[in-house]
Amino acid sequence: MDCAARRYADACTKLTEMIELGSDNPTLVLKGLVQRGDVLSNMKRWQEAVGDYKRAIKLDGKGHWKWHLALSKAYAQISSPEEALRACEAAYALSKSKAVLDELQKLKHDMASAAPAPPKEVPPHYALLGAVPTDSLDTIKSLYRRKAKEWHPDKWLARSPRSQTE
Questions:
Q1: Which burial class, exposed, middle or buried, applies to 11 when counting CB atoms under 10 A from its CB (0-12, 13-18, 19+)?
Q2: Quick one: CA dihedral 59, 62, 63, 69, positive or negative?
Q3: Fewer CB atoms < 10 Å away: N or C end of the chain?
């Protein structure tokens, strides 16, 4: 473990002790949660940081805009863009600052560019077989054979009303 990681781990341990010891003092717990969330973010332990920021916001009632912004960044790191956007919108509602607005617009842009493309229409020759272009060659062959058997002329002649009357 390198020196910085050891310092972060020590800070996290001390903040955890502070939170546990100050359970009767909400201000101390609040401060400890936010600081531990920051330390956990620096340690790239995003899920735990999210938990601390959410707990701090809940404990405070509405939270500070910086906490919501930190929560948004942690959510973005754990691939939860909807939650990140919600937290960033809450930060902007509390601060109305240009920096938070820029962050919000960046998140919206990233979400729009990461959105999956709408599904393409299946070409008719694939649709006729009940296949899609990404199916394997073996799958397409078996679907083709199944359709060939289903529509074979000998089967259709046996089923047609003309052959039954003759």
A1: middle
A2: positive
A3: C
